[in-house]
Design brief:
By secondary structure, the chain is mainly alpha-helical. It has one domain. It is built from 6 helices and 4 strands; from the N terminus they run H-E-E-H-H-H-E-E-H-H. It has a two-stranded antiparallel ribbon. Strands 3-4 form a two-stranded antiparallel ribbon. Helix 2 runs antiparallel to helix 5, helix 3 (about 65-80) runs parallel beside helix 5 (about 120-140) and helix 5 (about 120-140) runs antiparallel to helix 6. The model is unreliable at about 20-25 (pLDDT under 50).
Amino acid sequence: MDAAMGLVEWVTTIIGHGWDVVIQRGHAQDWPHITANILHIVLAYALAFPIGWERGKNYNIAGLRTFPIVAMASCGYALAANDLPDFSSDAVSRVIQGLVAGIGFIGGGAIVKEAGTVQGVATAASIWNTGAIGIAVAYGNLDIAITLAVVNFLTLWCLTPISEKFRQSSDNHD
């Protein structure tokens, strides 16, 4: 109960100070900046949602929840890097390198090898792509983000049935 009262007092204090949000660096953020960040994150989520839907409808390991979360988190990390006091191209490079490696690790978990076949590679590649979508949104490259999202979705939606037919025909010839 004390924690809840403390939270209520904290929220009341923030509201009482003209809605300024104080962040760790110790200065107030303006609401237009906060709103822009939120919109970037929501856009990254929305662009990855159709990809997650396509993967999720076939009960893949990664699906409806994973893809939007990866895009949203990638966007969030990139936006946070933009707000660093010593923001530089080196800092951007390190953030992107970390994201690419981390998302590759997540995607690697979607790849399964069994009975002489490998499954989940398209899902892993799509997870990696949604990270790129999030980064592109964060840095304002909406043309890249939209192109990546549309081409990824169409590739999965159009080519998955063809790929499955090839797989079935090769299974019948064994």
